[in-house]
Amino acid sequence: MDRFFAILIILIIISSLFVFVKNYQDVRGAFSKELFTSFIAIYFILMLGFALLYFLLSEAGFSLLVNQPLQSGTSFERFFHSVYFSGVTLMTVGYGDVTPIGIGKPIALFEAMIGYLLPAAFLYKLLG
């Protein structure tokens, strides 16, 4: 049964790519590589900026996450946890393995709001 769903998903992806390539001339007029690259760069900069904010606040002694993953380990591990949490929050995935506490809650809420509204702004710019 799992194999059936895997094959089905692969077929859907291939057919989607086929339709995209077939209609590329129509899509190309609306799609901008520069705009898409800018969108990815903005996401990356925001993710690293919030990660740096989480990292620096944890270094200052603030408790930001449950189980304190930003308080233990090497500096690289703590920064990696900050980047991971920032990425999951910004992209509004929210796996649930890391939960903000204290001052981390409003910061994460603000970051999630930006992550939720940024694609809408991208689409508005693309279509408008």
From TrEMBL:
Keywords from the UniProt entry: Ion channel, Ion transport, Membrane, Transmembrane, Transmembrane helix, Transport
Protein name: Two pore domain potassium channel family protein
Pfam families attached to this UniProt entry: Ion_trans_2
Chain ranges passing through the membrane: 6-24, 36-57, 108-127
Leader sequence residues: none
Cited SUPFAM superfamilies: Voltage-gated potassium channels (SSF81324)
Occurrences of domain Potassium channel (ranges): 46-125
InterPro entries: K_chnl_dom
GO BP terms in the entry: monoatomic ion transmembrane transport
